[in-house]
Amino acid sequence: MKKRYVPITIVCGMLAILALGGQFTPAPSEELPVRLRLDNKGGDVVFTHSRHVKYVESSGGNCAKCHHESETPGLTPLPCGSCHATEFDAKFTSDHQTQLPADTCTRCHHAEMGKLKWSHDDHVSQYTTACTDCHHDTSIEAEPGACNQCHGEKADGNTPALRDAVHAKCESCHAEMYEKKLEGCSECHELLPGKTGPAQPSCNSCHYDTDATPLPHRMDSFHDQCMKCHEEAGKGPFGDKSCTRCHTR
Question: Which pTM value belongs to this model?
Answer without folding.
Answer: 0.44
